């Protein structure tokens, strides 16, 4: 145990975690990790949140980093970073998927891998003795994590450990991506120097050459806008990652340009903003949004990542496109490298000073004869409703939930803060939830590029612990196949009284999205058997898991929903803060037809099934 004046490697690392704003460390313990957790508990305010699986711990840390980054003021002392810790080999390889997702989606994460001692490695080298979880290849763990981190270190010398820890965390803050620290067990109690100074991100210098390139990119962008006219903005992920929400607001308010967002940037600002025009997701958008977006004279992508899931086959870069992302700007066929997004947006706003583009793109598309609502307001109002079929469908379910979020959960006040953070899984859940109208900035969370199924269930733990305002709780939408991957993470939420509301979309035990991607004609032909054998899941009574994970002391509530009347009754109870069910997690099984699918995917059937 470390005394008040004694500094060890374990205390040093734990203190650095605390200094960058980490309050919770997620993961699965083991004998190599135990000494670190003991010292962390005794010397810092960082608290351990044990999870049933390493992958779930990684998802929780990922989501914790995302919501903390969104909630901390730009330039604040806390950085919005997550941390997860596991034991060597079996734990580290199980965690790899989660860290890979954070790497692809630019989430700052510190992955700690507690390794066998230096002495044990020498035994392995000399006589081939393998300690538990050890691989004959000494750098096996390090090698794989080098592929999904911006810095990966093995700590074996206590004298070097402080500089290695500081260097890795600095890289994490600077690059906004994961880093990896593999710490040999005998280092935890080893003495080292105390921390010096504050760790912070380092900005890339802005040179005269950068200014020249920025000026050229802005001039080319202005020329394109003047050539094509009627621009619409497509706001993307980097606005969220680099905390450029204010820059986006200042730009659209100065130019009066309407804006859509990508799925990954959904709720970058409140979707009650009068210029918000929906979520554009390529061919997988609602048809009205896609027609309207493509009818614009030109499109301005700000921080948008082009992935197969947010384009669905549509072309991202064309003669009438501007896209500023990944430290460069494309203007039609021209490309301007090393142009930072945070400088490009205000520079373009300044260059367009005095010019406004107050076009309602839905009205323009409607006037052009396209089958879209006559105005932006009419389209957004259509996403909610009060008339539904008797039985639930994907689209009617999310339409009903949208009405709940906009009206009932806020007591009828559309400007009141939402008591929920929506957390969506991949596949049909994401395509349905992307059109929920989120009234609060950063009120929506999902993986939209890595798309690891089951992410939402583990992520709900990180969201709940990262946002602990009264009644601020995760509202989770997850498919049945995704849920089966990682359902045990609910036990962490029960144990810590985190109170998420989890809707499991049960389409009769079926990987619906996989069937749609491989054979969309299945949904038109509606075969009774045979064509879908490899996408069939074993049916679960999901609502009964509330009895498995809940206890008399730590409760959980389960519900089965097949009709809108049943959904309405549950939503009314959830909207009532005084209702006893809101003191514990809620798991609701939403029963849907195997042949149902979100309307956003109708294009797949129309294009492939004549």
Automatic annotation (TrEMBL):
Family in the record: Belongs to the TPP enzyme family.
Superkingdom as given in the UniProt entry: Bacteria
PROSITE patterns membership: TPP_ENZYMES
GO biological processes: aromatic amino acid family catabolic process to alcohol via Ehrlich pathway
CDD domains named in the record: TPP_PYR_PDC_IPDC_like
Role according to the record: Decarboxylates branched-chain and aromatic alpha-keto acids to aldehydes.
GO cellular component assignments: cytosol
InterPro entries: DHS-like_NAD/FAD-binding_dom, PDC/IPDC-like, THDP-binding, Thiamin_PyroP_enz_cen_dom, Thiamin_PyroP_enz_TPP-bd_dom, TPP-bd_CS, TPP_enzyme_TPP-bd, TPP_PYR_PDC_IPDC-like
Residues covered by the Thiamine pyrophosphate enzyme central domain: 218-341
Keyword Ribonucleoprotein appears in the UniProt entry: no
Native source species: Kitasatospora camelliae
One of the Pfam families matching this protein, by short name: TPP_enzyme_C
Residue ranges occupied by any Thiamine pyrophosphate enzyme TPP-binding domain in the UniProt entry: 436-554
Cofactors named for this entry: a metal cation; thiamine diphosphate
Designated name of the protein: Alpha-keto-acid decarboxylase
């Amino acid at each position: 145990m470390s005394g008040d004046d004694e500094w060890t490697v374990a205390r040093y690392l734990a203190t650095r975690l605390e200094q960058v704003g980490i309050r919770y460390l997620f993961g699965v313990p083991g004998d190599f990790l135990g000494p670190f957790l003991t010292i962390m508990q005794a010397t810092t305010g960082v608290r351990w949140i044990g999870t049933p699986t390493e992958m779930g711990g990684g998802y929780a840390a990922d989501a914790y980093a995302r919501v903390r980054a969104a909630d901390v003021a730009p330039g604040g002392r806390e950085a919005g970073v997550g941390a997860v810790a596991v034991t060597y080999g079996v734990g580290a390889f199980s965690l790899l998927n989660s860290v890979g997702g954070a790497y692809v989606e630019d989430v700052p994460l510190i992955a700690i891998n507690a390794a066998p001692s230096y002495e044990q490695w020498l035994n392995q080298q000399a006589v081939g003795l393998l300690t538990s979880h050890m691989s004959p290849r000494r750098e096996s763990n390090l090698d794989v994590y080098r592929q999904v981190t911006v810095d990966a270190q093995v700590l074996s010398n206590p004298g070097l450990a402080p500089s290695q820890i500081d260097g890795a965390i600095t890289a994490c803050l600077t690059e906004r991506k994961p880093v990896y620290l593999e710490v040999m067990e005998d280092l935890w109690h080893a003495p080292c120097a105390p921390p010096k100074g504050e760790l912070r991100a380092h900005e890339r210098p802005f040179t005269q050459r950068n200014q020249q390139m920025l000026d050229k990119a802005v001039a080319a962008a202005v020329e394109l806008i003047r050539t094509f006219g009627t621009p619409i903005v497509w706001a993307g992920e980097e606005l969220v990652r680099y905390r450029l929400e204010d820059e986006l607001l200042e730009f659209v308010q100065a130019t009066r340009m309407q804006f859509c967002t990508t799925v990954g940037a959904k709720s970058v600002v409140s979707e009650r903003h009068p210029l918000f025009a929906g979520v554009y997701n390529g061919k997988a958008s609602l048809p009205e949004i896609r027609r309207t977006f493509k009818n614009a004279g030109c499109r301005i992508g700000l921080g948008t990542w082009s992935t197969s899931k947010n384009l669905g086959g549509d072309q991202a870069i064309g003669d009438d496109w501007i896209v500023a992302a990944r430290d460069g700007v494309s203007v039609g066929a021209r490309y301007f490298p090393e142009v930072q997004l945070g400088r490009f947006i205000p520079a373009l706003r300044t260059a367009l000073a005095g010019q406004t583009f107050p076009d309602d793109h839905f009205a323009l598309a409607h006037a052009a004869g396209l089958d879209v609502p006559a105005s932006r307001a009419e389209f957004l109002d259509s996403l909610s409703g009060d008339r539904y079929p008797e039985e639930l469908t994907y689209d009617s379910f999310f339409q009903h939930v949208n009405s709940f979020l906009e009206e009932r959960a806020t007591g009828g006040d559309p400007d009141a803060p939402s008591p929920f953070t929506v957390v969506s899984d991949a596949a049909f859940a994401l395509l349905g939830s992307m059109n929920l109208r989120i009234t609060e900035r950063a009120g929506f969370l999902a993986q939209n590029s890595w798309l690891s199924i089951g992410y939402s269930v583990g992520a709900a733990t990180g969201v709940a612990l990262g946002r602990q305002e009264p009644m601020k709780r995760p509202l989770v939408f997850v498919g049945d196949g995704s849920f089966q991957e990682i359902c045990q993470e609910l036990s962490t939420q029960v144990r810590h009284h985190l109170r998420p509301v989890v809707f499991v979309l049960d389409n009769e035990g079926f990987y619906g999205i996989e069937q749609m991607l491989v054979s969309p004609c299945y949904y038109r032909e509606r075969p009774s058997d045979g064509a879908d054998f490899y996408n069939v899941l074993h049916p679960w009574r999901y609502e009964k898991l509330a009895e498995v994970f809940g206890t008399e002391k730590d409760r959980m509530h389960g519900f089965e929903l097949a009709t809108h009347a049943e959904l309405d009754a549950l939503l009314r109870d959830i909207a009532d803060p005084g209702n006893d069910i809101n003191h514990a997690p809620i798991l609701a099984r939403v029963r849907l037809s195997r042949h149902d699918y979100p309307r956003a995917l109708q294009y797949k059937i129309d294009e492939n099934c004549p």
